[in-house]
Amino acid sequence: MSKERITLNIDGQSVTVPPGTTLWDAAASLGIEIPALCHDPRLQPVGVCRLCVVDTGERNLAASCVRVCEAGMDVQTASGELEAHRRTLVELLLSDQPEQSMRERTTGDDALYALARRYGITDVRFPDGAADAPRGHDDSSPVIVVDHQACILCDRCVRACDEIQHNDVITRTGKGHTARIAFDLDQPMGESSCVSCGECVAACPTGALTHKALNGLRVEEGV
Amino acid sequence: MRLLKAMMALQAEEGAVTDAALQDLARQERVPLYRLQGLRSFFPVFRERASESRQLEVCRDVVCRMAAGGDPVKQAGELLAGRDDIQIRPVSCLGQCDRAPAAMLDHVPVRGDTAALRELAGGHGPTPMPVQPGSRAWPTDPYDSQDSQYATVGALAREGRPDDVIQALKDAGLRGLGGAAFPTGMKWDFTRRAAGETKYVICNADESEPGTFKDRMILEELPHLVIEGMLIGAWVIGARQGIIYLRHEYVQARQQLQAAIADAHHLGLLGPDAFGPDQGFELEVFVSPGGYIMGEETALLEALEDRRGEPRNKPPFPTTSGLRGQPTLINNVETFAAVPVICTRGADWWASQGAGEHKGLKFVSVSGDVAEPGVHCVPWGTTAREVLDRCGGIAGGRRLKAYSPGGASTSFLPPDKLDTPLDFEAMQSAGSALGTGAMVFVGEGRDLLDVTLAQLRFFRNESCGKCVPCRIGSHKAVEMVEQARRGASAVPPGSLEALHQTLARTSICGLGQVALLPLVDALRSFPDEPSLNPLRGEQA
User: Fold this and answer.
1) What is the ipTM of this complex?
2) CA gap B62, B92 in Å, rounded
3) pTM of the predicted model, to two decimals?
4) Looking at domain A1-78, which CATH architecture does it have?
5) Are residues B33 and A185, on separate chains, in Cβ contact within 8 Å?
6) Could you tell me which of A206, B32, B94, B117 has the fewest CB atoms within 10 Å of its CB?
7) Out of B23, B313, B461, whose CB is closest to A63?
């Protein structure tokens, strides 16, 4: 390991970190919490939800979960502009959410709804995607229920399945706004090679992957 | 490349990539099934089931829409009603905007106009796209005969110095001609100096932005310059392997390229001793399984690594960490094709080709409501008005309403900006951008909302879906504009502008960053355009 250290400024505070440290981790070491939905410190970061964007003074904002610290950087993690973008991103995600989040209704820890409360979002400016294009449910698995409408394509289940459990079952399928998660060659979850370990449910920040029993659905015996 | 090549071969041979075929492939290649599903569902060439019917792919994008005077897909459906043996599929821009409306019948480029479709409906057709005359002389080609081709790289490899080439590109002021305008000499310098055992040189021949077709023409008529530019690039940075990433719809360009590569092999310019004994260079064409986003250089790299073509977070940039994590030089077709003449005749000669203080030559694709659409090679600094004149002005003697200087990602300008010179900075000052030099002219009488909405739909259709702002934002914007246009619901004041700002600042790549730009800018630049009134909260 190199003994080299990198010093930069985050929200006016100086911080010194080892090379390869992300801005998100460097900020966390200062006690600064940057909102994120796709990021889970146990998983390789992907920078797709864009909520953790910060201002490095460059042309575009940088996703702090993937952006690596550079010496002399001067980073802002919160500003009027950043908060406005985060609010718009949360609103975009909310516009496609089902009427009720299965996670919010059961364990009460839906991270998207927590952000909606944080930003005080009650009205959504964007057309309702849940009413126009319902994406459907998959309750074929013995213990897990999939609500595609609640999925925000954060990739956490995909990575949890690969990186933590090494089961290699879940992918994003399709492209653009019609993309969703899928199992193996787009089989129903219960007919796929899924072993019902539950890691994806633990990793999911929304109501897309939840336990059947908590939702009052019948869990098959002998699993 | 292994997985995608295997899947492309299956698609070509069987007409589909079936579940059974993927199960076999997963076993052979020892990859999980989900990975193959991710690929099959992402790239538009793949089908899950083979179809018995003939496939007519109809371009739905802006220039074809203008040429058809409405939705070309709907028109094709009407004209081919009753022909159940022909399946119509809407596709994004085919890069045939000079011959709009365009289509492909069983992967052969054909005319998509009413006459051609009637012929097809009657059982005659297809009317194949006319092949361009290949004998035009272009000012960026330093060779007057086939025998003299590749003299530049030969001389460099014998007695040249890589740093001199880099200096010449810097002095010439050459910048990336695929739209991003990054200084070419600097890119070559970074890649040459980057640490890495293996280096790659890649030509981005995935031109797919509505209005852009100049690379198709260069590949068809000047493939030797593209190959030589790549050879020079490989020699400068020390690469042993080159890849031309070509969009699959460019069928004729592919034939020309393959023939030129075979010639170069025959001449010993490619192969194990390309730059001298044991200093080999191999060049191959990788045919893209489709999608505009593949032209984003890191999405292109993902595809070459057999992953879904989703752009990477940057940095790192390909110059230091590109294909398989190695330093990679990626340039556009036109950029590579400009290198031989700059090396042969010098940076001063190149600079002198521009108009006034501008340096060099630029290929422009001209389409839309012009009398004679086509590709022209013009001095940098030529004005948009001069380009329009070269193309016979607006068809039918109409007046100009608006023009887009650079492709779907660049904003439309009003007629009073027609004297703006073709130059990155000048077009930016005028309120737009030069982009790829895809000039789309719009005549009086057109509905500017229809035109800009077509551009927005293109970006929505081609979004890879990786990041939230682009995936959801582009879709919501299309819905909001369509609803306002129908009079179903008003656009909340300022909401499109705010959405554009979020996409521009937070999207991972250029697609999301520009998706709403032409529409939002049109609201500002065309305050008197009645078709845009529904977006201003006014009656149409």
Assistant:
1) 0.96
2) 10
3) 0.97
4) Roll (3.10)
5) yes
6) B32
7) B313
